[in-house]
Design goal:
- The complex is a heterodimer of chains A (140) and B (652).
- Chain A is an alpha+beta fold.
- Chain A contains 2 helices and 7 strands.
- In chain A, 29% of the residues lie in helices and 34% in strands.
- Chain B is built from 29 helices and 9 strands.
- Chain B has 3 domains: 118 residues, no CATH class; 261 residues, no CATH class; 128 residues, 3-Layer(aba) Sandwich (Rossmann fold).
- The chains are: A alpha+beta (140), B mainly alpha (652).
- At the A-B interface, helix 1, helix 2, strand 1 and strand 7 of A face helix 1, helix 2, helix 4, helix 7 and helix 24 of B.
Chain lengths: 140, 652
């Protein structure tokens, strides 16, 4: 009678279970932990690979080496397949310096140039061997 | 090695939580392995948060060893004291009781459980592989605060400098002012993992940790629905585990990419994700407290609610409304026997456990630290008549899109059908699903009725879980509509062929709708190279930075721009940012225009005036969109040139 009433109300504890049931739940938890380890491991591997500047990437940058307003020294950071870079420094369309340099993928090279604070725009143009071009300039 | 240390640090959290769980509530609290795991993760996070807050407020630097102490000291102490107490009083542990009735957990059910979870995780990883790079705006904002804890070994002060109108036609940068959008519980776990493992924030670790939270949420919803079904269908031939598996089907593989699933994981919507884990566990605790009249579960629910309050303000508010809805539903169904109901509730309070939690909450709140949103009085901005059109409520169609059409459709049907089945309606489990679903529906569709002033689409994301549970229950209970005519008792029955057809349609609709959402959410090819360029440019500036520099960047066209602040760690709002264009046109929420003008019209008088007032001298833009206006100006020098990012310096 009591058991029926209890069953009808839906309230009450289920009877104790065997080790077999417990171990199946524990197995499920262990499986989920293993799944998480595998998933996060893959994410770590993939993100590390994606954030590797050289792995499957093709980019390079050009920047002045320091913030001095008269300084024209510049640095190229290369993460592309091109290794030969041609630079050209001009002021009011007059070429004041030019040259070539080789930078391997993953490399970084600085070129020191004499300071130039002449009025107007002094432009440093760099072209890579695959034809891509970048420039930086100072306006005085 | 970093990955291994990350795993150790991350899995140490649920381990410490388990010690705390058993230390506080004893070995006789009947929990299944899955329940223990989910509760342990949240308790571990809570224990870490409270310990670090207390130590930080005491002025103790949050170094690696101190974080380790914060993680394990209280749990180990409580476990040791409990062990000694149990031994000293010679109390015997009660028989361990499992979640599942013996007959319900069959090998096929276990296999299906593992398959569903495995499939869900597989789908999420597919999404995260491209969307898991450190580029998401929200994640960048959150990781800034976590990094402050790591770098300074102190608790962060949530503040930022803003551009303000000085009243004479000019603008200036204010001093740092408090902000209430961030809550410390969102940042301390990440800070702790980074401190203990050395993992960089510019890695997969933030997303991986959020994935763990999301996986634990699936398990929490599974156990909650099994528990509810165990009581709701006590005298029906419906296996509670079948209900749990059906719910897992609706929240796992289906809609795996939607908000609040994988999209929130990759987007770094930290507070929401933690709230989505904690809310079902709070409800599970209170549910078991009520139906089993076990005050320890009541105390556990109070503790989890407190942890939530220090983790995410919106989820805390949503939980409050859910509990109100459940309470009102319970009063409604027990209306004819309120004294009995009151007596049952009183029994939960007649124990030292819940009062210990109340005392702890009061002491921590008043003596150590209150949540940021309380200190800045942000609650008053969330409660009131809706102030903008985006807060006046969603349409049913919009709510369906938030919750998933199939979940909303079947869930609503389940609610309506349940109202007409007396045995279900009168079950003590019914208020929990009814109250949960209805309170969220009202908050999302008619916020004015409950004086809620929050973007309605944010509330809409909370609809998916209760309606997934309702849908799962309906799907699992559907076979009871099939009756063999020759057998009794007679009841509603459907001929076999029609029943089969209806089942196939239902299943197909569910699979199609959930998979379609997955398909439309897959991210496009990765932004890795663009991200690297932005990071490289920012690193260049950070290494060549001068104290007087003031840097402005664009949010519209630069990838991962919110992560740039992690290179400087000067202020939450440094660099300054040109935000989304539509925000500058928002008449309901007018904002400064200088960050727009300085990039869009740097050569016009209004742009120049902003540069002059603020002293901004460095600007980062995407040359594909914003190069022209700078190139033709003689006021700017181009000092850094990449493909997707350029940096200009304004001549002084």
């Amino acid at each position: 009678m009591k058991e029926t009433a209890k069953k009808k109300s839906g309230v009450g504890m289920r009877p104790a279970v065997s080790l077999r049931d417990l171990s199946e739940e524990a197995l499920a938890v262990i499986f989920v932990v293993v799944l998480f380890v595998a998933a996060s491991g893959w994410l770590f591997f993939h993100v590390n690979r994606e954030l590797d500047p050289d792995n499957g990437k093709n980019w390079w940058t050009l920047a002045f080496e320091n913030r001095d307003t008269g300084s024209l020294s510049f640095v190229i950071e290369n993460h592309s397949a091109s290794t030969i870079f041609t630079f050209n420094v001009s002021h009011d369309k007059d070429v004041i310096d030019a040259g070539n340099l080789t930078i391997e993928r993953g490399g970084r090279k600085a070129i020191s140039l004499p300071a130039n604070a002449a009025e107007g725009r002094t432009i440093v143009t760099v072209t890579s061997s695959d034809g891509s071009k970048k420039e930086i300039y100072r306006n005085h | 090695m970093t990955f291994f240390l990350f795993l150790v640090a991350t899995l140490a959290i649920p381990l410490s939580g388990y010690l705390l769980l058993r230390g506080l509530f004893g070995p006789t609290l009947p929990l299944s392995s899955i329940e223990s795991s989910a509760f342990s993760l949240v308790l571990g996070i809570g224990s870490l948060d409270f310990s670090m807050i207390a130590l930080g407020k005491a002025g103790i630097p949050l170094s690696g060893p101190i974080v380790l102490i914060a993680l394990f000291a209280i749990p180990i102490l409580s476990y040791a004291l409990r062990f000694a107490y149990e031994r000293f009083t010679r109390k015997r542990s009660g028989p361990k009781r499992s979640l599942f009735p013996r007959t319900a957990l069959t090998p096929p059910a276990r296999t299906l459980l593992l398959l569903l979870v495995g499939l869900a995780v597989f789908l999420k990883v597919i999404f995260l592989v491209d969307a898991g790079l450190p580029t998401a705006t929200d994640l960048g904002h959150h990781m800034y605060w976590s990094k402050i804890v790591v770098d300074t070994e102190r608790l962060p002060e949530y503040s930022k400098r803003e551009i303000v109108d000085t009243g004479d036609g000019h603008v200036a940068l204010s001093d740092a002012e408090s902000i209430s959008d961030f809550i410390i519980g969102e940042h301390l776990p990440f800070a702790a993992i980074s401190k203990l493992s050395g993992a960089s924030f510019f890695s997969a670790f933030p997303v991986a940790f959020l994935l763990l939270i999301n996986i634990a949420t699936l398990l929490a919803l599974f156990v909650l629905s099994v528990r509810i079904a165990d009581v709701l269908f006590a005298d029906k031939a419906i296996s509670p585990v079948s209900v749990g598996l059906a719910v897992l089907f609706f929240v796992g593989p289906l809609f795996a990419f939607s908000s609040p699933e994988a999209k929130f994981v990759s987007g770094g919507v930290v507070g929401n994700l933690l709230g989505n884990l904690m809310i079902p566990l709070v409800l599970l605790s209170f549910f078991r407290a009520y139906v089993e009249t076990e005050s320890r579960f009541f105390a556990l629910g109070i503790l989890l609610s407190l942890i939530l309050a220090y983790t995410h303000h919106l989820s805390t508010l949503v939980l409050a409304f859910i509990l109100l809805g459940i309470a009102l539903s319970m009063i409604a169904i027990t209306f004819r026997d309120l004294p009995s109901f009151a007596k049952r509730v009183w029994k939960l309070f007649a124990s030292p456990y819940p009062w210990s939690m109340f005392v702890f909450a009061a002491l921590f709140f008043f003596l150590i630290a209150a949540p940021t949103y309380i200190e800045t009085n942000a609650v008053s901005t969330a409660v009131g008549t809706p102030s903008k059109v985006t807060r006046t409520g969603l349409s049913l169609l919009q709510a369906s899109e938030s919750a998933g059409m199939v979940r909303m459709a079947i869930g609503l049907a389940a609610l309506l059908v349940a109202l007409f089945i007396r045995a279900v309606r009168r079950s003590p489990a019914f208020p929990f699903v009814f109250g949960w679903g209805c309170s969220l529906l009202i908050m999302a569709l008619r916020p004015r009725w409950v004086f809620l002033d929050i973007p309605s689409n944010r509330i809409g994301t909370y609809l998916s879980f209760p309606f997934a549970i309702l849908s799962g229950m309906f799907l699992a209970a559907f076979p009871i509509f099939y009756r063999d005519r020759s057998k009794k008792p007679a009841g509603v029955f459907v001929p076999g062929k029609l029943f089969l057809f209806a089942s196939l349609v239902l299943f197909s609709f569910a699979t199609w709708n959930g998979s379609q959402d997955n398909q439309s959410s897959l991210p496009s090819a990765g932004e890795a190279q663009d991200t690297l360029e932005v990071f490289s440019a920012t690193n260049y500036l950070a290494n060549h930075s001068l104290p007087e520099d003031l840097f402005l960047k664009d949010h519209n066209y630069l990838v991962a721009d919110s992560w740039m602040k992690l290179f400087f760690m000067r202020d939450y709002a440094y660099p300054l940012s040109r935000g989304y264009f539509k925000r500058y046109e928002d008449e309901a929420n007018p904002r400064e225009q200088c960050t727009l003008r300085m990039i869009s019209v740097p050569n016009l008088p209004e742009g120049r005036s902003c540069y002059s007032d603020l002293g901004v001298n460095l600007v980062a833009i995407n040359p594909a969109y914003d190069m022209a206006q700078f190139e033709k100006s003689n006021d700017f020098s181009l000092i850094y040139s990449g493909t997707t990012v350029q940096i200009y310096e304004r001549n002084r």
